[in-house]
Amino acid sequence: MKYQQLAWAAFLFRYIVGGEDEAYLQTRKRLGTDPASTIANLSTTDVQKLVLANFINRWRCRVTNSPDSARAIQEAVVRVKPLLDVLREARIDRVDFRERIRARGRLLTILEAVDEVFAVLASLGFHFGDTAASKLLHLLQPGLFVMWDGPIWYAFQSQARLEGRRLTYSAFLEQMQGMARDVCDDWQQLGVDGDPALHLSASLGYSPPKTLAKYVDEYNWITITRGAELPPLWHPGLLGMSDVHA
């Protein structure tokens, strides 16, 4: 994936989703730099409003929004927090998924840690399935976890089936890492200083800035869930855009 494709997707995403994007940024801002601790210490009412109503259920998830589901989320977050703490500095473009980490007195790879955390969240009950689990994971560690929805899962699962493999969430993340690294490589080849995600966030006026993991999700949502062409078919062509599909 080229940087210009990512940038087009980010621009179209902002244009299409509007208020939902603002709600996401508000949630990120409220959760601060240690989202797991913040969620664990919120009132159940605030979890219902901030995590469920303001974010997860805005995106066609149907998680039961009740004090019981809010408490279940908090208990699950506390349960996986030791693993999340070890992954706090991990970023989708730089993490080594084969690296072995120690958490709770155990030695496991980051891939294994990802699947363990995902399994805990996806089995919460209250209609909290794979899509909602990926969204909560992204809130907990925005720099590492990429969200998926039904169409995105199906697209990558279909590809995995053709290759004779099963699509786990960690396998999906590995593919997202490849896309993120392609963007970073293209960014360097363009000769621009700084971080591509920070540059996009500044250009689009986002505060807090979005992460590269979030922009990769937006690319998937625009091209798979919405089925849009990049650049848009109505675009007449701009200088330097001729190689965007290369």
At a glance:
This protein has helices at residues 3-17, 19-31, 35-41, 44-53, 67-86, 110-122, 130-140, 150-162, 169-189, 196-204, 212-225; strands at 100-103, 106-109.
Cα radius of gyration in angstroms:
18 Å
Mean pLDDT: 91
Question: What string, H for helix and E for strand, traces the elements in order?
Answer: HHHHHEEHHHHHH
N-to-C CA distance:
9 Å
Strand order of the largest sheet: 1-2
Secondary-structure map with pairings?
Layout: H1 3-17, H2 19-31, H3 35-41, H4 44-53, H5 67-86, E1 100-103, E2 106-109, H6 110-122, H7 130-140, H8 150-162, H9 169-189, H10 196-204, H11 212-225
Antiparallel strand pairs: 1-2
Helix pairs in contact: 1-11, 3-5, 4-5, 5-6, 6-7, 8-11
What does this molecule look like?
The protein has helices at residues 3-17, 19-31, 35-41, 44-53, 67-86, 110-122, 130-140, 150-162, 169-189, 196-204, 212-225; strands at residues 100-103, 106-109. The chain has 246 residues and is mainly alpha-helical. A two-stranded antiparallel ribbon has the order 1-2. Mean pLDDT is 91; it is low at 238-246. Helix 3 runs antiparallel to helix 5 (67-86) and helix 4 (44-53) crosses helix 5. Helices cover 59% and strands 3% of the residues. The chain has one domain (3-225).
